[in-house]
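Morning F.,

Quick status update on the modeling queue. The single chain you submitted on Monday has been processed. Sequence for confirmation:
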Amino acid sequence: MLEIRCNGTPREIGVTHGKAAKEKIERSIQFYGQLFRESCSMSWAEVLREASTYVEPLKRIAPRYIAEIEGIADGANLPFLDILALNVRSEITFGLFTDKSRGLADVPSDGCTSLGWLTGSKSFLCQNWDWRVEQGENLVVCYISQPGTDIPDIAMVTEAGIIGKIGFNSKGVGCCLNAIRCRGLDRTKLPIHFALRTILESRSREEAVDLTKSFGVAGGGHILVGDPTGSTGLECTSLWVKELHMDEEGRVCHTNHLLLDKPDIDEPPWLADSSTRLERIRELTSSLSQPTPDTIFDLFKDSQGHPASINRKQEGDNKPETLFNIIMDLTDRNAQVTFGRPTEYSERVVLKLRKD
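Structure tokens below.
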């Protein structure tokens, strides 16, 4: 797995990322170009026009991130809007393909299962990240440091060219992501991958939650936020961000549908297995007496409901597959990541950060 270490100003971070991951970024653009044609009936030129609508709002509310994307574009010798399009890919994939006026096909995708668990002495944040197999070769491990600032160091797994994804920081703040498909976009708010980066730059779970709610999120998604004190689920739509709190067992479990009250949200039926995976991860964690990174990892191998199981397989009509699993120990600022399905992974890496 490609590991990138980026240090400096936002632009310098972006240039380093772009140079190191150039081929993966180019393949990511090819992958999403095909996916958008399939799921949204959008040409790449239409995608770029959509991405351009985010530029001015982001310059106002997130100028450092725009500078980093400019750096990635320069480092990879690619147009700025191509990189920005990658960073708003969730808004396009899970917002625009639900636009009934376009007569779009319903193309199931994603399927992630996430878990936050405060077990007494440890705070774990975990998930299987499920997506199309073709995108697996374009994942990178990225370490980011910004010397001279009070921004924590970051370790994350991301798609090449995307500035915020799944990981944790030196303060012990981490995040996971579940796709949610619901209608509506607000392009004046943070795209979800920008919201993830904001969380990864936060100094506590409370600060991460407050910032996400104050900025708002452009479209649908569930962000699981954790730190050494536990986890909070953030169900996000273009209208609101609502908190999902830990249950009596110290858990927040989530899959790919909204759990909280949503009378003002149009969430069409999507993944029939989302509810069954949610019940399964709750069942598995309830029966686990000694949570450790290894015993939690074993839970994510579960194949009940195969191929649309927690341990997902691209087979038949089921298009996504588990591309990586991550088990974060936010108490000790480390994580184990396996690339591939948990039962047949190709590589395991350990992410570590020094505590601030």
